[in-house]
Amino acid sequence: MSKPFVTGARRFLHALGEGFKGLFVAPGQTLACILSLAIAGSLLVLSLSFADLAVSMLDRTTRNTEVLVYLKEQVTSKEIMVLMDRIKGRPDVLAVKYLTADQDRALNEELLPQDIVASMPEGSIPGQHALNIAFDSGTVDLQVIEDLSKFLKTLEEVDIVAEPPVGAARVQALATVIQYGQVIAAILAALLLGGILFFVVGTLARTMDSRLEEMAILKLLGATDLHLKAPLYIQGIVQGLLGLIAGAVVAKVIIAATNGYIVATLGLMRPIPFNQPLVFTLAAIGGVLVGILAASIASLRRLP
Amino acid sequence: MPLVSLHQVHKRYPTGTEALSGVSFSIEPGEFVFLSGPSGAGKSTLLRLLLHMEIATKGDVLLFGRNLAALSRSSVPYLRRNIGAIFQDFRLLPDRTVFENVAVGLHILGLSRKEIKQRVTNTLYDLSIDRYAQAFPSMLSGGEQQRVAIARALVMHPALILADEPTGNLDWELSNDIVRLFDDLNAKGTTVIMATHDRFLLNAFPRRTLLLNKGFLIEDFQPSQTSDDETEEGVDEEPEEVPPIIQPLDITAALRNLHTPPPLPKQQKIAGIDGEEVSS
Fold first, then answer.
1. What is the pLDDT of residues B99-120, one digit of tens each?
2. Best to test chain A binding among B107, B152, B156, B162 (most A CBs inside 10 Å)
3. CB B218 within 8 Å of CB B258
């Protein structure tokens, strides 16, 4: 190995040691910084993940626009085929599917929590043969669905028409509001992180204050600015990394616990999204950036 | 080529204080030079100029053949690695051991732990303070603390030692020891510039002396070793009345003899090497 590399590595290791020592200059303040970063980081991840779930579920509600048409028991398969053809010819209808009574019963079972289904006597869940009409989710006009619904109710073969989602437009509006809320939550969390950044700056400045005499001596002995700043940058990066990665871990634990609860208790099959590699990568990058930024501000203010 | 060379150097602080006025001299490698004069004479400012802690307002300061005014900011640390700076107040880190205090600068050079240990141990041994390696500065006497400060400078193997009143906080005996130490280093080839206003020391160690007053270099002289008692340099006991080797200098007369002395301010405030203001 070349000599400059070896000396550079030794200098880096020394700065690393000094940076870690800096964490213990004001241990209470350092811990408070790490905790604040962890709380802000976990809040950011949780707000984005929960909002993602809410938006995706609402989106799904509005997108999966379906109408169930329950048929009278005596309707024959030939009559059903004719009816299906008539419906398929309507605008915006994507598909028409026939459900047997057993298939309908199975769908009803899925909607109920499993422990309730298990406790019910066999055959107590109703099932009726029906037609499932799906619409083009992107283009469907609610008026079209309502018109079709009215039309179906006039037909002799039809027993009941399950109403199309009432107020789908409101649901869509709610999803939009949540999406805006998601953006606002992200901005607030970023501002919180910004506030905590200055808290980190304060901790680093305190470390610098405690080392002012040492830095003045080092300067006279021939230390470059990089020698003096390196431990500070390392201290800032360590604080940033510890805080934000701890935040990601906390968020992961909360989401895992919540997912367990909603799947087991509510029977909801769609868990809260948590993209682990993405979240931890962003936490690491964020931690490094917070550290670099805080150390730059602190060294601008305090370096002798 | 002189190691240090000043040509018509002026230094005026933003407060308007003229700390140095037209100072010119040069110092050859291997010389031992005292900077003397009363408080506020400009000794500390001169040392600060050599350490590149200040820039001359006018004139040229050349160190190791390089004009300090033209030196880039990034080159200053490398220049300082050739200078051992020693101060009156020792400037030791109270929460570090003697060993750590001495080793503090060696990490800058990127030396290995083994090299650092070897260099520090040798230096502490040379200065007879090796037994205090694991002690903290507060456990040492003033003289021992100053030796630690000297060790910290010497461990970097500097070509030039700049000492600003290094004996200012020490009693006579310890001061004598410290200057003897510098003398030994000088004998090994290190150039030493030591600021002091201690006339006893100047008498005990007759070396080239630059006498400053109110920013003017008023004398540059090499005292001769006169008495038999002084063939062996330094004295073991503080003299009750030290016969001055340097002739008592009439500062007013000296100033009168300057060719064209600029008007002197009534009171000068000169920033000392520690950054504090010193009233003259």
1. 999 999 898 888 889 999 999 9
2. B107
3. yes
